[in-house]
Amino acid sequence: MADLTAITSWTLADAQHFARRAGFGLTPADAVALQAQAPGAAIDAWIDGTGAAYDPAAFTAALATADVVLEPLVSANTAVAGSVDVAAVAAPHPFLVQGGDTWRNSLNTAQALLAWRMQHNPHAFEERMALFWHNLFATGWHKVDNTALMLKQIQLFRGQGLAKFDDLLVIVSKDPAMAIWLDSVLNNAAGTNIPNENYAREVMELYSLGADNGYNQADITQLARALSGWSFTFAEADYSINPANPGQKFPADARFKVYDGTTLAPDTRVWWGGAATVSSNLHATGTISLFGQPLDVTTTASGWAKGENAVRSIISARGSNCAQFLAKRLLTHFVTTGYSAQDLTDVATLIQGAAFDLRVVLKTLLKSQFFFGAASRYALVEGPVSWLVRAARMLCPSLASGSGQTPKGYPAWRLVTNSATTFDQMGMKLLDPTGPNGWKEHTAWLNSNTMRYRAKAVAALTLNESRSYNGTTYPLFPTFVTTDWFPTAPTSAQAVYDRLAALLQPAPIPASVSAAWLAALWPTTFTWDSASQTKARELAFLILCSPSGQLY
Amino acid sequence: MTTRREFIQTLGATGALLAGLDACGGGGSSSSGGSGSTPTPTPTPTSPILVIVNIDGGYDWLNVTPPNAGTNLGVYQTKRAALGITNPALLTDLGSGMALNKDFTGMDTLHSLGHVAWIPGIGMPNPNLSHFTSIDLWGQGATVPAGNGWLGRFADTAFSPTGDVLRGLTVTPDLPVMLKGATRSFVSITSAGGYVFPAYLLSSTAVPDATTLETGWGTALSASSTDPGYLAAAQAGKLFFDAQNNPAFGTGGTLTARTTTVPYPGDATYPVLKLSGAALSTSLSAQLKLIAQMIAAGLPAQVYFSRLGGWDTHSNQAVDHPNLQRALGGSIKAFYDDLAAITTTAGIAQDRVLILAYSEFGRRVQENNGGTDHGTAGLAFCVGKSVKGGLYGGYPDLTSLDSNGNMKYTTDFRSLYATVLDHWLGQATSTTDTLLGSAYPRLGFL
């Protein structure tokens, strides 16, 4: 059985295990500071983001002005007849994918923004949960075709990722990116129209219950009727217009609406249909039968949208199935895939007992003896984005240091995501999963191609790769061996290894392997000179590329 | 409504389901649609190559090879009032009440050459209409989860435990369950160049101490462990490491450059475009070009895997589906033609290649508003000079749908696998039956 009682004390290794799984790792010094606190209070603060360590002021300030990407698309295309020239955006500038710049619609820039946030957000847990929900509610840019709406969905996960799951499921069901992704905006069941089943199927199969777990095809069709007409509106002010091509407009924002024939506000459009103030009816009327219960899909009782009662009934009518589904996903992401049927039942019971309050569930799970048990330690293959971000957190300067500020081009996540298509080839194309099932985790992250590109990505980080852009050469990930990696000069090859292992925290590496590395890198006497500092970079590369380096 | 258990019983009661699978096939004269004489198929080559094309998303094959006669046509006209393809000018008659959509570029030519085996109604018992369950089951070659795939089990059996690293390749960045064995998996290679470690690591600067890094990584990958996580990572890394060291990949780790001999979809000179006039997707053509390059370079691969996604046409089908068909059919036809120009020591590539295309399911007979939802039975097809062209299995009876309005399958998908394992991948009948867990009737197209 899964022992879900909370630990009452912890070691440094425990604190580091927690920080890897519930964030993107801590440097040895920061881990010591975390471990100095009682685990219960420390974990609460980590999850809630309360206390000085999680003060977002410096991060927020950097985010607002940082030129953290190289942006080759700052000048608009002027090839369109009658278009106007658009001045390049001078640095520093915020990321060029939101607000008025939505029309640029750059996936790579949006990926860079997310990666940069993961690297620097002091409240790492909100980024970790956003990544978890992005995989569970996997939505793809290639169909949504709008980075602003994609990022709006990710922000929703940051804000609501620890809400009650039924509330989260409703919010996701109303999210514009999701509504486009799974065709809610085209689901017309008014009158005798046949509804579009896409979202109704996946919301149960992929987002709340799991295949064949408590519903049948008739429930899918009925739920599709209940959710027909779920769309969104936007006003003229919500558009982001390409100044060089004014006909090219992207919604930068949108508001949920049941498209049921009610009058729209002046100058407001719905996504489907398009014309201002013209409204027809896509929403079904009457009563459906869902999970064997009649349900009026036109009621707005409790302040709910028409049909919302059907989404909520997934949890109210199939709570035990839903809890089991969530338990599986949480265990697989945060704890281990080697759980027993009883472990699964225990976590599902926790979820139901907490009435699907995710904050309570996550706090209990991440404080539990089960989470900290030996069987959970290094039991998971780390996903590639988390893996690369964690390495960057360990090896790159923090925002607090002078070199961690963001001069132009630093840290060039934009180039990493673009030129090398690294996230894609590593097997996790951030913001753009192939399908609504997201990415399979653990050993499914690894194959010959993803290992190839993991090595390439981490070579850029450890071996100090630089790229030339507009005549200037920029380091992709500026790293400083003598100051950040080794503030105290090592006196032996073993000391280099020990320090790098403490920073990078791989699973135990067989002694024969590390000994062979050190013998090859430092075959004779050890001197901490620039040649050795290059070898330290190579050793960091080997640690990160080794099989042990994929586990966390 | 009919439960799934009742559904199975119904299928059992209909009897002839598995019997007479190739009643319509074999020689193709019954289904060549007046396209002239059918050539004698080329004998199975000594070094056969299987190229899988995964039509990902559950394609609406009812609109690819729609019914054009009999009671099926009436049902189709009613349930596909908006999206149905019924105008004879848009169709090529294949005989047996089945037609071919002319948007399926190039396939009519391949059919008239007698090189296409069509298997409509292919499916499995108890379909649950889930992409992901169905993809897993098609991959596994089983109707209960088995953990590894039918081609992975083939690799376990046929590949050398310590060699044959390039014998099974996927040109997709992922490793589908179909290609995972218990002890062997396929290698994923997505580009023709830059495959030598560690030279590929850095784009603009030389890698320091390249030999040390290569040896060091090799040491780590070769370390044995009882830790399954460690092993999993090591095996994935080792496959790449061994592949890049394989001399078949050529010096410098870059495949010999090759210029295609015919235009592929998406190429500037390719004559067929999207409905909008824009170029077709290059997704599949790029993969098939890479496979052609690999075959020309003499890579010792026996099985290749490729994929074209985007077929989950819940909406906007009237636009998306013709474009997808043009890209799929056009890519297969271009690849087939291109193979004629490749000769290696193993022979002419066009004689050696069998293309097997499949999708995880077909779509609902009744359209929704602008699209089609998930269904059951699909259409698989095989292309090659050794294929006895024609129609295999039976076209589903659209007047006898299941309780959800979906087609009942007529051919078990494992019959296709059994046929290919026996007659193309050279497995003994008993080995094939072991790999698939049972003896499935063979289809007659090889």
List the helices and strands and how they pair.
The complex is a heterodimer of chains A (552) and B (446).
Chain A (H helix, E strand, L loop, with lengths): L11 H11 L5 H8 L3 H10 L8 H9 L41 H14 L3 H13 L4 H4 L2 H14 L4 H9 L2 H6 L16 H8 L11 H10 L3 E6 L3 E3 L7 E3 L3 E4 L9 E3 L16 E4 L2 E4 L11 H10 L1 H17 L5 H13 L4 H10 L1 H4 L11 H12 L17 H6 L3 H4 L22 H15 L3 E4 L2 E4 L5 H5 L7 H12 L6 H11 L8 H16 L7
Antiparallel strand pairs in A: 1-4, 1-5, 2-3, 6-7, 8-9
Chain B lengths: L3 H10 L35 E7 L14 H10 L11 E5 L2 E4 L5 H6 L3 E8 L7 H10 L9 H9 L9 E3 L16 E2 L21 H13 L5 H18 L37 H14 L6 E6 L8 H23 L3 E2 L2 E2 H4 E7 L18 E6 L6 E2 L19 E2 H11 L5 H8 L10
Parallel strand pairs in B: 1-7, 1-10, 4-12, 4-13, 5-6, 5-7
Antiparallel strand pairs in B: 2-3, 4-11, 8-9, 10-11
Output the keywords.
heterodimer; A: 552 residues; mainly alpha; 3-stranded antiparallel beta sheet; two-stranded antiparallel sheet; 9 strands; B: 446 residues; Alkaline Phosphatase, subunit A; 12 helices; 30% helix
Largest sheet of chain B: 9 strands, mixed
* Strand fraction of chain B: 5-15%
The greatest interface between two protein chains, and residues involved on each side, is: A-B, 68 and 65 residues
Biggest sheet architecture of chain A: 3 strands, antiparallel
Q: What's the oligomerization state?
A: heterodimer
N/C terminus separation of chain A:
23 Å
Radius of gyration of chain A: 25 Å
The CATH architecture classification of chain B is 3-Layer(aba) Sandwich
Mean pLDDT of chain B: 89
Q: Which parts of chain B are unreliable, with pLDDT below 50 for 5 consecutive residues or more? A: 1-37
Shape, principal axes of CA atoms of chain B: globular
Distance between the termini of chain B: 40 Å
| Individual helix count of chain A | 25
Structural class of chain B: alpha/beta
Order of helices and strands of chain B: HEHEEHEHHEEHHHEHEEHEEEEHH
Describe this entry's structure for a reader.
The complex is a heterodimer of chains A (552) and B (446). By secondary structure, chain A is mainly α. Chain A is 45% helix and 6% strand. Chain B has 446 residues and is an alpha/beta fold. Chain B has a single domain, classed as Alkaline Phosphatase, subunit A, CATH 3.40.720. Helices cover 30% and strands 13% of the residues of chain B. In chain B, the strands form three sheets. In chain B, strands 1, 4, 5, 6, 7, 10, 11, 12 and 13 form a nine-stranded mixed beta sheet that branches. At the A-B interface, helix 11, helix 21, strand 8, helix 24 and helix 25 of A face helix 4, strand 6, helix 6 and helix 7 of B.
